Amino acid sequence: MTETSPAPGRRFPWSHRTRPGVDLALAIPLFLLETGWAVLDAIYGAGLEVWAAQGEQARIDAAELAFMERLRVLQIAALVLVVLAVVFRARWTAIAHLLLALLLGGALSVERHDWERSHSAPGCVHYRAGC
Known about the structure:
Largest sheet: none
Number of strands: 0
Distance between the termini: 97 Å
Radius of gyration: 24 Å
Helix content: over 70%
Strand content: under 5%
Shape: elongated
Order of helices and strands: HHH
């Protein structure tokens, strides 16, 4: 009888859980990098552009809209990293990026609320027929 060797097993990303050390080594720096990116973008990207506008409402509005768009793109990137972390079964990386996506969603909703509040058309304050 001939002895057959087992076929080499394929290693799919989801076949084994990522080791905790590797997982944490990716999760912590990426979380800090992305959080720092969002904070520095708020300070230097949007804040300095609003400061440089010196009261020109069109430039201020453009800077605020661009900042909201950059927050949305960063949130989408964080959610893509959540999906990749789930595929590679990296639990801490997925949790860290999900937390970051939630924080970015909160910041984005605050920015949109401020935008809508400052750009809403003046309307009727009292619910009377004479408004």
